[in-house]
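Researcher: Quick test of sequence recovery. Tokens follow.
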């Protein structure tokens, strides 16, 4: 069985060409290069055309799926195979499952870009064109894409810009200079703010435990961040640190456990519950600074997704997981940069919602977590192994060095 494929893009310096050839060899098939035109400059794409020679239909089917993920598409274009869903929340078994990379579908004689790109979704053909949809959001009668032959994926290519994302992405190493990363990210944040682009932060309670809460609050106060995705604990310990000077009962100044400090996060929850909400506590003047103060009083969109280990939870915590996921997706929509600070749970949850072209910075002390988060098959993901409190304070100092009028910290 033969089939002819085409691929265009930065195939050589992004390492896509060897991946294409290797996958064919690994599957025991053969190829014959029909044409290859290498880009003459850094910006010029290359063009590849090859014949795939397979022993069986099964091999051809399996390899086609893999080659599509690497950006290959069939030379003889065929219309996407569409089947109707027969039941709410389920699709025909041969459905196409999405990646987080930019994707097009060949429909009505032209390539059409898929909207709301994210990984682990299906593609539904609507009146507006093809759209990514979660399985549970598919409705009976929806038109679902069921073939990969008519799909074109744009795998990540090496970044053409000369910034930190072009020279530090791909691998994660604790030897990397955090200073360099801090300076570049601070510059990126300033550019985002100047251009009115959206930055979203994902953060866990370790931010507060490590003394980074004040610095993160300052980034919200300075207008550098437009959304917060977290769980119950970030807000609980932030409020504990503001009201009682401890985080998980540990004195924020001395680093020593305090007498009966183990009650302190419950006292924080109790105070908020007494007022009825974080907003009401702020309104009453009981909460006057901190991350949640900056976020709530500035009406910055946020979601505290609850989990099984939560104390309380705070009245604002969203205990319905489906609603929390939907709210996360709504807040992160349109973001061009997402900063993930020491929350494996919420960072992975958010990462799954993001298309691969959104700039993502993940800071965690554990290299394995950083690798998992930064390895989204994206040239736009940067992993930094660092103590998050240290990182955030350095980032805040660097950001406000360029904008001294905002430098007076409230928290
Ligand atoms: N009292 C509470 O209600 C309570 C307390 C804790 C957690 N929780 C909830 O449990 C869930 C999971 O919590 P999570 O996000 O903290 O846990 P997580 O395990 O998902 O993530 C914590 C991350 O922090 C990293 N980390 C640890 N020390 C660090 C440091 N010094 N610098 C940088 N990174 C560091 C770890 O490597 C890990 O990846 C959340 O929903 C949270 O709200 C609730």
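Model:
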């Amino acid at each position: 069985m033969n089939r002819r494929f085409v691929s265009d893009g930065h195939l050589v310096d992004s390492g896509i060409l060897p991946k294409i050839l290797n996958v064919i060899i690994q599957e025991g098939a053969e190829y014959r290069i029909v044409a290859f035109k290498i880009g003459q400059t850094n910006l010029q794409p290359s063009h590849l055309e090859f014949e795939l020679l397979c022993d069986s239909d099964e091999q051809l089917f399996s390899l086609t799926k893999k080659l599509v993920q690497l950006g290959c598409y069939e030379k003889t274009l065929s219309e996407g195979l569409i089947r109707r869903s027969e039941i709410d929340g389920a699709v025909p078994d041969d459905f196409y499952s999405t990646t987080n990379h930019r994707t097009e579908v060949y429909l009505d004689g032209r390539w059409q870009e898929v909207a709301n790109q994210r990984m682990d979704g299906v593609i539904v053909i609507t009146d507006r064109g093809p759209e990514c949809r979660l399985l549970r959001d598919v409705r009976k009668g929806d038109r679902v894409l069921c073939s990969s032959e008519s799909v074109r994926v744009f795998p990540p290519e090496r970044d053409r810009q000369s910034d930190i994302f072009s020279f530090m992405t791909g691998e994660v190493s604790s030897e990397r200079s955090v200073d360099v990363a801090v300076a570049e990210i601070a510059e990126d944040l300033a550019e985002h703010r100047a251009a009115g682009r959206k930055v979203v932060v994902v953060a866990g309670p370790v931010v507060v435990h490590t003394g980074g809460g004040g610095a993160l609050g300052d980034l919200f106060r300075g207008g550098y961040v437009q959304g917060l995705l977290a769980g119950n604990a970030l807000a609980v310990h932030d409020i504990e640190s503001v009201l009682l000077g401890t985080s998980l009962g540990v004195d924020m100044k001395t680093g020593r456990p305090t007498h009966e400090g183990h009650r302190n996060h419950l006292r924080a929850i109790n105070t908020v519950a007494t007022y009825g909400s974080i907003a009401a506590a702020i309104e009453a003047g009981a909460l006057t600074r901190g991350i949640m103060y900056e976020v709530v009083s500035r009406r910055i969109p946020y979601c505290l997704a609850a989990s099984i280990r939560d104390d309380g939870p705070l009245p604002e915590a969203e205990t319905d997981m489906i609603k929390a996921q939907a709210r996360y997706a709504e807040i992160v929509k349109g973001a061009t940069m997402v900063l993930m600070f020491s929350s494996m749970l919420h960072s992975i949850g958010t990462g799954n919602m993001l298309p691969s072209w959104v700039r993502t910075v993940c800071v965690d002390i554990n290299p394995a977590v950083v690798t998992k988060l930064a390895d989204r098959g994206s040239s736009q993901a940067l992993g930094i192994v660092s103590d998050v409190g240290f990182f955030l304070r350095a980032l805040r100092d660097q950001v406000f060095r360029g904008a001294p009028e905002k430098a007076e910290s409230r928290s």
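DSSP finds 14 helices and 19 strands in the chain.
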